[in-house]
Amino acid sequence: MSTAPRLRLAVAAVASIAVAALVAAAIHALMEEFQYRPGHPDPARETVVHVTLDGRYGPPRAIDVEHLWGECATALTEAQLMAVPERPDARHLEVVVQPALTKHQKARVGGCLRDLTVHRIKTSEVSLTERTATTTPTGDPSPPP
């Protein structure tokens, strides 16, 4: 075998290894980007979920609002589930969730509230804001900073 075919074979082998390495790196990068990693809620922060509601047949009923929140609260942890809306008015729902929602939870809860339509209501505006907690998760007032 002359030198030229050996050189071509070596170049083809190196090129194949390089392509395989690039494909493996791309697959790894995609896996890292789309992997679910549950965050750790920050107990010193709280998330305020504010929703404006539209009723299909008049003002939204409290039971329908509770159903909407119950469907979308599935992303919350047991400690966060204590944040149940007390008596929503006819057009607005505000829930304070503590500890604050993680990035993944915000995406799930916000997307659910924007997309879900319960029998009699749907949302027209959804906002999730974060602030320093005013109480501890047990309900005790936070110490001053």
Key phrases:
2 domains; elongated; alpha+beta; 145 residues; Alpha-Beta Plaits; 4-stranded antiparallel sheet; 3 helices
Summarize the structure.
The chain is α+β, with helices and mostly antiparallel strands and 145 residues long.
Strand fraction equals: 15-25%
Radius of gyration: 25 Å
CATH fold call of the largest domain: Alpha-Beta Plaits
Biggest sheet details? 4 strands, antiparallel
SSE ordering: HEHEHEE
The SS-based structural class is: alpha+beta
Strand order of the largest sheet: 2-1-4-3
What does this molecule look like?
39% of the residues lie in helices and 21% in strands. It has 145 residues and is an alpha+beta fold. It is built from three helices and four strands. The N and C termini lie far apart (80 Å). The relative contact order is 0.20. It has two domains: 1-35; 45-132, Alpha-Beta Plaits, CATH 3.30.70. The protein is elongated.
Which helices and strands occur, and which strands form pairs?
Layout lengths: L2 H32 L10 E11 L6 H11 L19 E6 L5 H13 L1 E2 L2 E12 L13
Antiparallel strand pairs: 1-2, 1-4, 3-4
Helix pairs in contact: 2-3
